[in-house]
Amino acid sequence: MAYLKMSLGQEEARHFDAGHAPACIEVRGRRVGIGVCKDTRIEHHLDRTAALGIDLYVAGLVHAPDELAELDTRAQRIATAYDLPVAFAGFAGPTGGGYAQTCGGSGVWDSTGTVVVQLGPEPGTVASVEL
């Protein structure tokens, strides 16, 4: 296991324990900091993850179709605050767990907060970016 989500939602906290520390993994010589959904808006998590000396911040998120702008805002804020590229995997399609539709929006933002590539709401699409 590489990481446990640190910032649980109310329903999640009834079933799971939160992780206690940020984590990063090394991929091809790059240090990759990990977040999950709500973690991406918690400054304490972000500060501690960035302090690990990461080269890239990645996270998986689930948002409703009308919340795509929130995903963009978070990615841009993280990229510019920590001078890091950000890659988000935005869930696309129905979750079967409360979201009949999701916004998708997987993408990569460079360290200035500029979108390098961003996908739509369709399941099964893939993007590739070289750092």
Characterization of this structure:
With 131 residues, the chain is α/β, with parallel strands linked by helices. Helices cover 21% and strands 22% of the residues. It contains three helices and six strands, in the order H-E-E-H-E-H-E-E-E. It has helices at residues 10-13, 43-50, 68-82, and strands at residues 24-27, 30-36, 56-61, 86-90, 107-109, 115-118. It has a six-stranded mixed sheet, with helices on one face. The longest helix is centred in the middle third of the chain and has 15 residues, at 68-82. It is globular, with a radius of gyration of 14 Å. The mean pLDDT is 93.
Helix vs. strand class: alpha/beta
Assembly status: single chain
Average pLDDT, all residues:
93
Helical content band:
10-25%
Biggest sheet features: 6 strands, mixed
How many helices in DSSP terms?
Answer: 3
The spatial strand order of the largest sheet comes to 1-2-3-4-5-6
Number of strands: 6
Question: Could you give the distance between the termini?
Answer: 25 Å
**Low-pLDDT segments:** none
SSE order in H/E notation?
HEEHEHEEE
Strand content: 15-25%
Radius of gyration: 14 Å
So what's the overall shape?
globular
Protein topology:
Blueprint: H1 10-13, E1 24-27, E2 30-36, H2 43-50, E3 56-61, H3 68-82, E4 86-90, E5 107-109, E6 115-118
Parallel strand pairs: 2-3, 3-4
Antiparallel strand pairs: 1-2, 4-5, 5-6
Question: Short description, anyone?
Answer:
The protein has three helices and six strands.
Highlighted features:
single chain, 131 residues, alpha/beta, six-stranded mixed β-sheet, 3 helices
